[in-house]
Design brief:
47% helix; 5-stranded antiparallel β-sheet; 191 residues; 7 strands; two-stranded antiparallel ribbon; alpha+beta
Length: 191
Amino acid sequence: LHYVTDSTNLTEEFRRNQARHKLLPVLKEWNPRFLEAASRTSETLRETQAFLEQEAQKLLERAKASGGLWVSPLKEAHPALRREALRLWLLEQGSPQVQYLHLQELMALLETGGRRSLPGGGLAECAQGMLSLGKQEKPKGFRLPAALGKTPLPNGKVLLLEEKTREALEKEQNFHNLLFKNSFDYDTIKG
């Protein structure tokens, strides 16, 4: 493999190049063996992560039950091990985009019980000593006749329809057309 320098490597347009051109020289000035120290630290972190994943997998096997995970083995584990086990479990369940925030919410759920939404439409629920994962139900659509004035909706909200002239709309300073992309021409529709 031959080393190649392309034109972007010489500029400071990208953060990676800024780090290479500005930050690394300062770090090397502070510690001439910085790259070796960083390499050792990186290797140690890789080994630690591999060990943590291995132990988290063992914890998962102890906690697995039909339909989810038993809470008690998870709560007995060290928080770092518990978080890693939950991360692996969510990945096994096909939950995409698992972030630290979601893992922290699940950790809290183990203590308090209840439900939490997850990315991709997932729903975690902790009840009766069991943590389970399911899909959020999408709200069902509905149709109903609407007229000018207030119309109660099945979800408990109210739809308010008002008739306004174009002149009245133009006078309102804060009117933003968030609902429709095109304004309707009442005369054309009435036509």
